[in-house]
Amino acid sequence: MNTIDWKKYLIVFLITTGLFLIASYLSNYFGNQKIDQLKSIQDKIAINILSSETQFALLSESSCKNVSGSVLSAELDELGSKLEWGQKNLGATDEVSYLKKYYSLLQIKDYLLMKKISERCKVKSAFILYFYTTAENCSECEKESLVLSSLRDKYPELRVYSFDYSIDLSAVKALLQIYKIKDTELPALVLDDELLTGFHSIEELEFRVKESFKLQEIKPEEIKK
Amino acid sequence: MVLIPDVIFYMLIFFTVYVQVFFFVTLLENRKKIVVRSGKIELDHYPAVTIVVPSFNEEKTVYKTIRSLLNLDYPKDKVKIFLVDDGSTDGTWNIMKHFEKYPNIKIFHKENGGKYTALNLGLEHMETDFFGGLDADSIAHPESLIRIMSCFEKDPSIMAVAPSVTVDNPRNFIQNAQRAEYHMGVYLKKMLGFLGAINVTPGPLTIFRKRVFDNLGPYRHGHNTEDMEIAYRMQKNRYKIEHCHDAYVYTNIPKTIEKLYKQRLRWIYGFINNTIDYRSILFRKKYGNFSIFTLPMGIISIFSVSYLFGRIIYNLGDFLYSKILVLNTIGFHFTTKIFHFDTFFLNAQAFIFLVILIYFLIIFSMIFGRKMAEGKWSFSFNMLYFFPVFSIIAPFWLLKAVYNTLLRKKPTWR
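Structure tokens for the assembled complex are given below, as produced in the milestone run.
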């Protein structure tokens, strides 16, 4: 009695290792599926933006009725939240950071297009460019994100575009240059071409967003005069 | 980036999976040896057995315990029953006196000194070659003793035989959770028996050869877990302990969380402190699987539960913090968005699959244990009670036992 079957200890070790490999294979498999899902959403959005741009260019000023841009907003939001989740739970893989760059680019394109549409077609809208950082622990950024998503829920006409300050993308860097945003002043917001740095409460931003809506309401009358 | 807490987390999961697979492989190796006898059996010889019933304030249950001993399917003149009243302050002694007239029953009354002293009193008066105890809150199945004795008959090198301890009539969900645990316990004990690595010879009806006590001495206090201490001592002296899976003993289990907590605190405290006392046999090849598998498994499980508990508390704190942050920043507000389920947000990290596997193996062990204890394959939703009850409360008695050990505080019996 009391003999130790070392072979069994080894076999069990190998089985356990095998189970770990299977688990990590499954995890990878589902992770890749999620990334594929993200890619397909992005492709869809890219096509939509491109199509809207083209449509806008073709129709020029003739008709605003046919320009549909508002569908994109919800899709962009969905993609944004999935990307954020993916970054937390899938690990910061190359693919996720690549997708994030692409997402930032799509946001800028959407911003430019929507701005044009709203100006020309007098669509009630407000735009916020939001810059945050993930490179360091930024508790103000967390709070500001909460404020913005709450505002966005409340005002569907408000479009919030969020950008990671540390992202390595020239288009985002250009935005940072235009608005002279420094990493010491994060979170930073751009609303109606005005730069707001640090944390801004929901009451304050709500007031500003409403002001922005009002400005647009006055404009058409001024033009008539 | 790989974080140290995650590495520890995966290592603990690795050990848990390893242990479960180890048991499973042991089962596959020995599956043909597990036969549940349903009818009566006969022995070549019927050696005399002394069974001691140590009691302290057990007036509610001791009557049934004694009755079950009188009903054992074993020659009456070969079962010597010692009823020991360990200084009870209730009606236990009066109930015992009713049984004085039976020729095979002797009754003893002594000052309260703890269960091990009551057992030792029995040892002093014993005249048979076999000795066992039966806790006064337990009931022996009529065929239990003869089945146990058949194990001794088959293999003269066996020094002690432990029965399958189960629960008869669970009343509430706490008891149902424990019942599932006892079924799992039957499975684990059987597998440890195959490995020669049993670490507890339970108070309810474990039968020993007299030689065990002649050679190793009587029961000791053993940090209030004398049935664990004697098993450790036997393992240290490389005495063989066997598990007789179809010898059933039904035990009374705590009805409330508080009583369960006290019982388990005592058990875990006993495990920690007996292991410390017998640390010299840890990781020694010559003490077999007991030293390489059972003890390390117990130690690691204490670490795992403590660590996981810390992790859960941390996550809970993190969650609450984020909720408070939301409340502080944007106030209380109902979102107008309708929550829709999206499979994208299902977590698919590797540990999820492993945890699911562990859960399945645990449920399997309960079902298999139940098969051994009740003779039928069946799944019951009561088994699922085990997970919430034990994962929520176990960390508390575990950490308290560690705390008590560090501060040298001894937990009380009840």
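Strands of chain B lie at 49-55, 79-86, 105-110, 130-133, 138-140, 158-166, 207-209, 240-251. The mean pLDDT of chain B is 91. Further analysis is deferred to the final report.
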